[in-house]
Amino acid sequence: MIYETLKDFAGPVATTIAAAAAGFIAYRLGKSQAESARIQAQVAKRNWRTQNERVVLDLFERRIAIFEGIREVVGETLRTGRPDDNIFFRYLVAIDKAPFYFGPEVEEYLEKIRLLIIELQLDGSVIADERNPDRTDRIRGHAKRMLELSQFYTTSKKLFAPYIQAHQKVGAYTAEPI
Are the beta carbons of 120 and 141 closer than 8 angstroms? Predict the structure, then answer.
């Protein structure tokens, strides 16, 4: 009689145990898939950050190269006081890509520098000709233009800094836990 009773309950109990085991396994699989998805999302976020930092670094490198080219030409012009055609050409090459990397305020300033270099070239030509009636005026104007060009080091910091500054702090990197 006990055997018969147990036999009647054995089928439903076995089914319940099998269903519970299947439910537990499904729960564990679902939980591990959710954890796997969370880790994948974190990896994707870090990959995006890395790619974004590469783009920012590339942009920084291109901008600083343009700035250094301009600064080099301005420095040589200030050192010699007589820019020749080679210096002027190097300036034009240095500023060629500037409109694509800097705003209109920088472009406007670079045009002023270009015109200053042209005037300094003209100064050199007129000053070299001792019989030129404009020689005295050009000598006075040359000093004024050289002083104006020397302001590049002050003015350029204000204009170029927003484009060339580091946007992220440099220091110890703290990784987020996975």
Answer: no
pLDDT (mean) for 61-81: 95
* pTM of structure: 0.71
What pLDDT was estimated at residue 178?
46
Write a three-state SS string for the chain. CHHHHHHHHHHHHHHHHHHHHHHHHHHHHHHHHHHHHHHHHHHHHHHHHHHHHHHHHHHHHHHHHHHHHHHHHHHHHHHHCCCCHHHHHHHHHHHCCHHHHCCHHHHHHHHHHHHHHHHHHHHHHHHHCCCCCCHHHHHHHHHHHHHHHHCHHHHHHHHHHHHHCCCCCCCCCCCCCC
